[in-house]
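Hi there,

I know you've been waiting on this one. I reran it after we fixed the sequence typo, so this is the corrected version. Both the input and the resulting structure follow.
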Amino acid sequence: MNSKRAFKLLKEIGFTRFGGSAEELEAAKILVRECESVGIKAEIEEFSVNSEAIANAELIADGVSYKVEGYGNSGNTPDEGLTAPFYYLENGEDVHKQRANGKIVLVNGYVGLVIYKKIVESGAVGFISFAGNVIDTERNSDLERKELRQPLKDIKILPGVNLRAVDAMRLVKQNPKEVTIKLKQEEFTVNSRNVVAKIPGEIDEAVVFTAHYDSVHFSKGVYDNGAGSVINMEVLKYFAANKPRRNLIFIWCGSEERGLLGSKAYCNAHKEELEKIKLCINVDVAAPVLGKELIMVTADESLKHAVEYMAKEVGYATNVTWDIYSSDSIPFADNGVPGINIARFGVPGTSHIHTRNDTMFFLSEPALKITADFVEQFAIRYVNSFTFPVPRTIPKEIKEKVDKYLGREVNKA
């Protein structure tokens, strides 16, 4: 594991590369170049994603204007805007839902599938979210751009805007009788990309390695997840020089930050391959100087215990849990492929994701090497095992968590 080479590549791809952008394509070409530098062919697989160009987004509360970003793909308001009574929908429980009918509602933070269903069920006509910290200012932070993801659009399209946390607090203190949302945008589709490389093995079984290489707006995305991307590149370079027992598939996933779109697209396009994949090894976030190693096993519980034993054997200090992880192993688990997620989380307050502060300043080569060494050791052991030791099953407990994560009704009968 050449951590110096990996850290150099991390710096090279450390630029904003939002899913579907020209910058994402630039990063994809760099990854292709790296694969081909050791004689491994890599291909860029394109898939369609929603996009938009927002011309105008406004929020006016009883005559007071707030700086906002419009939600992409959440439609348009009339030219004069959408005006309705204001309501702070704190948690979406029945008491709040019954008071939200016909109103524009403010919700706490991120608008995911669960809260969006409650917004729609309440009869609200528009929504406001907020992001960041109440001590953020325009000078030291960026107003996060949001989008109405396809599963939410499939329920109903409501116009939405996003504002800073401190402005959300101001808005609730103001307690306006009415608010007006103005939103104008053009919606269309663009291509995002997965980078896929394969190394043939000796037997007709496969292991897949995943890491997303896209970032959010404003972020250089080196911690999340350039670091995981370069770790998997080092694993590819090892097996390029040391023939594996099993076939290997390396996928650098695009548009993960937009709802795991790259890994979903791969699974949909390659269903015939999935039956032969024994395990997904996913690396997502690594390299913070101040941090701790974590592993989430999305597979039979026996793998959790095996990893705990191996970590002690090789001297790798980590916490291993039996759980899902919000990353590219999810679509594979949804298609019956067991997974392991390996990460290094930064200590709160010492590293940042999804902001302009995800920079190399908080990362180091020695910290990257801690995670990278274990990923390589684990990969060598399992890729080259005589008989694959991980049952190709998704336990009921894990399947229920995957279904819940994907917004499905969970049947526990």
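Quick highlight: DSSP finds 13 helices and 15 strands in the chain.

Best,
R. S.
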